[in-house]
Amino acid sequence: MRGAPGGGGLKGEFLAAMRCSANSIAVVTTVRAQTPVGMTVTSWCSLSTDPPSLLVCLNRSSHTAAAILESGFFCANLLSDTQTHLADVFAGKAQGDRFASTQWRQLASGAPVLEGALASFDCALTGALRPGSHHICLGEVRTVLLGTGKPLVYHDRGYGRVHMERSEAR
Asked: Which of these, 135, 119, 116, lies nearest to 127 by C-alpha position?
């Protein structure tokens, strides 16, 4: 094994090792003061099937984290591999109103859902943890919307697409 390039101690090694992981990209949305807010995340996953639940990890300094804790709901929109522009916009890499860059509508919960997402999970916030620099927001899924396509993935500071190889033996 080798250490992280450029040093940086344990934190640098941790970040270098995490770049080896490929993660699906979601845009997490909610509403604050009747205004939609949202951000791109790669740290999110399913938590339970009974009840259907997932978790999202958001930096404590983000407006979206504060809005979710205030509103009590959020929507995790799994981006398709045709939505790299949305990943950039909601990551703050592009100027302007994030929600002006896409078609969206509000769900019954109040959370914005992004049109064209591969899947969207409308969640009621059921808890939040505060380890380190992030909030882990736990959500019980209330509604699932399914689109079509393949997921957009993030690996080593870049976007990628999934290429599936199916085994003949099952």
From this structure: 135
CA-nearest of 126, 129, 36 to 72 is 126
Return the residue matching tokens 């099937």: 49
d(CA 156, CA 60): 23
Farthest CA pair distance, the chain: 54
Local structure of residue 43 (DSSP, 8 states): -
Domain residue ranges of the chain, discontinuous segments joined by +: 23-147
**pLDDT (tens digit per residue) in 109-167:** 899 999 999 999 999 999 999 888 889 999 999 999 999 999 998 777 778 777 667 76
Question: What's the CA gap between 81 and 94, in Å, rounded?
Answer: 18
Beta bridge partners of 114: 104
Q: What is the pTM of this model?
A: 0.85
Nearest one of 148, 140, 104 to 122, comparing CA atoms: 140
Topology (CATH level 3) of domain 23-147: Pnp Oxidase; Chain A (2.30.110)
